[in-house]
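Second attempt. The first submission of Molybdopterin molybdenumtransferase had a stray character pasted in from the spreadsheet, which I only caught after the job came back as garbage. Lesson logged: always re-copy from the clean sequence file. Corrected sequence (643 aa) follows.
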Amino acid sequence: MTDAPRAPSHAQDQFLNVLSRDAAEAAFLDALRPAPLGVQEIGLDGLPGRVLARDIAAPVDAPPFDRATVDGFAIRAADLFEASAARPVHLRLSPETIACGTAPMLPVTPGSATPIATGGPIPRGADAVVMIEHTEPDGDGIAVARAVAPGSHISFAGSDIARGQTLLRKGTLIGAPEIAMLAAVGIDRAPVWRRPRVAVLSTGDELVQPGQPLRPAAVYDSNGPVISAALRENGCEAVHLGAVPDDPQALETAVRAAFAGHDALILSGGTSKGAGDLTVRVIEGLGAPGIVAHGVALKPGKPLCLAVCDGKPVVVLPGFPTSAMFTFHDLVAPALRAMAGLPPRGAARVEAILPLRLSSELGRTEFAMVALTEGPDGLVAHPVAKGSGAVTAFAQADGFVTVPALVDSLPPGTRAEVTLFGPRADAPGLAIIGSHCVGLDAVLGRLAGRGIRARILATGSQGGLAALRRRECDIAPIHLLDPETGAYNAPFLAEGMRLIPGWRRMQGLLFRPGDPRCEGRGLDAALAALLADPEAIMVNRNQGSGTRVLLDGLLGGARPPGYWNQPASHNAVAASIAQGRADWGMAIRPVAAAMGLGFLPVADEHYDFAVWQDPRDPAALAAFEAALADSAPELAALGFVRA
Ligand SMILES: Nc1nc2c(c(=O)[nH]1)N[C@H]1C(S)=C(S)[C@@H](COP(=O)(O)OP(=O)(O)OC[C@H]3O[C@@H](n4cnc5c(N)ncnc54)[C@H](O)[C@@H]3O)O[C@H]1N2
Ligand code: MOO
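This time the job returned cleanly.
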């Protein structure tokens, strides 16, 4: 409860009351007591995805009558007890033929048979059907050379669904199989829970809706669409109202309107500081009891704000996309599912080995997202964290490992429980761990065309080689320069590994077009001019990258301004120069071209694939090599030269 008086200052008392995850959940559920919102009758067409509000009993039998399951003759089994190949039994034919949809008029009397189609109602007197191919025409009737057990080829009334039986239970999520059952007993509408209508509002001056051009310093609103999608996956109707700027009046108006017209309200962003106080004040004014938790000892997700106003949930998710999704799934979705009448989502769990130490912040329950590969001793859980601001972690991860608040790290080799996002992790065909290159996407496209799926985890060359050494992946893409020999990749292989030759990528010096220090000059002259100018700021690369080795070689011990800015990708280097945060750096040519930057070639870098000589899936690896050969045109178009 947060009725504490607020200082009118700008003091950073953002988290009035940091609760444990469990305490926050309990406070929220206690104040909300989530329950379904009411019942509505919906026709069959609208039922998929809805949740049944009452048990449904079958009003009729299915099938409604005893029927033939084959084309043949309705007979009396007793007539054929003695039938054999040596002494076929003759049966005379009844004058009627029973088609589907024809009610029989005449009984089957001893010594007779009635032609019947699959699905035709069994006539009185008959107790079995003999298949047409087990009979021969015989004068005015048929000859049957085998006995037939009573009940053969008959499906009896009510054998599928018995009248009065509970067909579907309350709480069932209706899909195609349920529609079939309802339709089969003649039901054309069913009572379902009303879907909670949930308003979704993003907050922040920097947000631009997808489809619009991006302004400088702005980002696309990804939380709004992803929360809306997740709401729909959890039985709610999502109403995405776009983004509202950090302006008190605009925020108050938007929040009040969204709250009034919906069953729940989900905001994102601005929970931790500044504008967050605005949102919090508006929420406090919406109704009692108001905010029940603001600040939860969770990682990601610390600034989560949970409120209940006049019986409706009002939630402010952290702005960072990964934090927003995690807190939504962990603490918000279960309550909304209960309001939608859906049962709790059962999460499958598997055990997997941690290949590396997993560090965690003491005092916060931490969820570490992991991608699974198959290792020699079972599943291996590779952390895929890119920070709370990332949007790709959910798509790349199979699930997460929970590190309790009082644990600060899990050592390598720990067998950890992984809670899966989906029903079961689908085993990828090929596990590729190492350095990522845009050219690899072209190869994987070709590989998919050959029906083989691959999982890529971008860990850098060294991480990939280590995973390959532990046999936790099939392929490690690497570009490692041995400064001693000047050779690429081969010196780094372990005994029993080999290289599949990949391609060469030209590394070079990047600059903004028109920079007089570089434009029209050769590499040496440009470098000399840059190093001579104290105003020239460089952007470096991370230690351990091949590009860094090249750069350090070029710099020959110099430490120009910007040296300590060390991002880990070609794209970050190019963005930094294009946006004027730095003036020069090193990256591969396609990245320079994509950003419209000037480029002075420095050296060809070799990007190859390390594999074991005795791979665990030789066929998949052969398919990879074939896909690599097929990708020559795409690679050439990207500016890569096949090795
Ligand atoms: N000094 C402190 N700074 C921060 C703290 C802290 O305790 N002290 N907490 C950090 C944590 S943890 C998180 S999580 C974030 C949460 O911040 P907010 O909830 O206030 O979110 P914003 O500041 O508005 O945005 C953070 C980040 O996310 C981007 N964003 C916001 N909305 C969207 C959206 N709809 N779609 C895509 N991206 C969005 C926004 O542009 C920012 O980059 O705060 C830390 N800081
Ligand atoms: O809570 Mo924040 O979500 O750690 O990044």
